[in-house]
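Entry 12.
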Amino acid sequence: MTEKKLLRQQIKDAVARLSPQEKAETSVIIEKRIESLPLFAEARTILLFYSLPDEVNTHEWIAHWNGKKRILLPVVKGETLIIRPYSPGEMKPGSFGTCRVRKSERDGQNGKISVIFAPLKKYAPGVLSASDGS
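Predicted 3D structure (tokens):
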């Protein structure tokens, strides 16, 4: 098993041991830390992930900032990554137990992305923590 696959498995196993309350609390801590960043305050367009069940929850946070910031979500088509604007009415069930943005005439970013947030988790050694300041 490659180092990357091993790390992913360690994270998945550790997250599976967390209670729903611990996942919710971690999600809020991460959201507040992001919101405190000057980069976030200045950002007009944000690309981030629509969380899977075993990740910190981004669904409510995306809904909260939608309309205040331009939210873009990645969609994987085969080996191609497509960027689509978030629109609650265009979400549909996707693979891996999550939702994805439906294809629309609004595909593409049509502008500059201010900041990108990708999932980083403390649930394995050496990975960024929401609570330890690393």
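Annotation: Confidence is low (pLDDT under 50) at residues 96-109, 121-134. The helical segments are 3-16, 20-35, 38-42, 59-65.
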